[in-house]
Every structure is written in structure tokens, then in C-alpha cells.
Design goal:
The protein is α/β, with parallel strands linked by helices. It folds into three domains: 94 residues, Resolvase, N-terminal catalytic domain (Rossmann fold), CATH 3.40.50; 51 residues; 45 residues. Strand 1, helix 1 and strand 2 form a beta-alpha-beta unit. Helix 6 runs antiparallel to helix 7.
Length: 201
């Protein structure tokens, strides 16, 4: 089945252009919200609706995701369900060699952006340390760098959302949003939780 996803920022914006572009789709999901909004109900419904062999079509990537990392996360989720993705504007199709190459390039770009962010963090820490050395030399107390606080998740809430996900009542993406975890942290917690369950008698 061809499944179309449409998003416009407000109720006042017209969806006609996107609907015309996706006229061949047998099923449409339309969200009226900003791409920066985490909760997009129609996107969640679409991700739960699609099945192996389906193709998701969007007018452009900007309708589907707000960042390269977000796009990769969604495309990866759909590919795990054996669903192909097509973007008409970018002429992108994950079922073709060219589309898969473009996806690899997107992944490389996301990794580059991540490395740039980490490098800026390292430079910031180093600058803070140098500033502390100057403060100490002037007889002042250093400003301690404590780093990022660890992500905490309520065990009962995690167990509840985990069970709902495993029972097929909600998607992994929806579960991550409810728990406010990114993909890496979510699957790390899942692995730890399942290991803990396996160790219980």
C-alpha cells in the first residue's frame, strides 16, 4: 500500500499542494503542527498503521522530520518494519541503490554534526579548565565542571510503557517520547531491563 504523510504548521495552511503531489496514495495521514513539535498524532498513527511491503511517501523531508538525526531515526524505524520511504522533492527512494546511497550520506552528515557538537563540548570544558587555572592563580575558587546529569527514568513508568510497547499497543517512537529518552538511551534501558528480568527467579 502507498501511504502518504502530510504536515502543515497551522490549521490555516492549505494541504492542497501536498495532497495533489500524493494523489496516488491509498491512505493519507495529515498533521497540523510544527515540525519541532514532539507529539505529532497522525505521524504516530501512520507508524503504527504501516506494514511490511508498504511505501511511505512525503512531498519533502521537511514534512517528515525536523533534523537529519530525526529523519534517520524515522527511516530506520520504517525500514525495520520493511517499509520503503520516498520523498518526491529530493527524489529519494530507499528501495533504489541511489536512495540507499543518499541515506548513507545523511547518516555520515549526522555523525559529522554529532562529532562537531562533541568537539565544541570538549573545547568548552578545556576553556573552563583554563579559566579555573586563572581563578586559582588570582586566589579565587575554581568553578567545578560537573558534566551532564544522568538521565533518570521512573522504574514503574518504564515498566508500564515497556509492556505497552511489547504488546504492540504503541510504537517504539511513541514509547521513547513518553519516557523522554533518545533512541540510544531507550534501547540501552530496554537491554538492562530485560537482563534484569532474565536474572530474576
Amino acid at each position: 500500500m502507498k501511504v502518504g504523510y502530510i504536515r502543515v504548521s497551522t490549521n490555516e495552511q492549505n494541504t492542497a499542494r501536498q495532497e495533489t503531489a500524493l494523489a496516488d496514495c491509498e491512505k493519507l495521514f495529515i498533521d497540523y503542527c510544527s515540525g519541532k513539535t514532539a507529539a505529532r498524532p497522525e505521524l504516530e498513527k501512520m507508524l503504527a498503521f504501516i506494514r511490511a511491503g508498504d511505501t511511505v511517501i512525503v512531498e519533502s523531508f521537511s514534512r517528515l522530520a525536523r533534523s537529519t538525526a530525526d529523519l534517520l531515526r524515522l527511516v530506520d524505524f520504517m525500514q525495520q518494519k520493511q517499509v520503503e520511504v520516498i520523498s518526491l522533492k529530493e527524489n529519494f527512494d530507499t528501495s533504489t541503490p541511489a536512495g540507499r546511497l543518499m541515506l548513507t550520506m545523511f547518516a555520515a552528515l549526522a555523525e559529522f554534526e554529532r562529532e562537531q557538537m562533541l568537539e565544541r563540548q570538549r573545547e568548552g570544558i578545556q576553556a573552563a579548565k583554563q579559566s579555573d587555572a586563572e581563578r586559582i592563580a588570582n586566589g579565587l575558587e575554581p568553578v567545578k565542571y560537573r558534566g551532564r546529569k544522568p538521565v533518570t527514568v521512573d522504574p514503574e513508568q518504564f515498566q508500564k510503557e515497556y509492556k505497552a510497547w511489547k504488546a504492540g499497543k504503541q510504537t517504539a517512537v511513541a514509547t521513547m517520547k513518553k519516557l523522554k529518552l533518545n533512541r540510544t538511551t531507550f534501547y540501552k534501558r530496554v537491554k538492562e531491563y530485560e537482563a534484569q528480568k532474565g536474572g530474576r527467579k
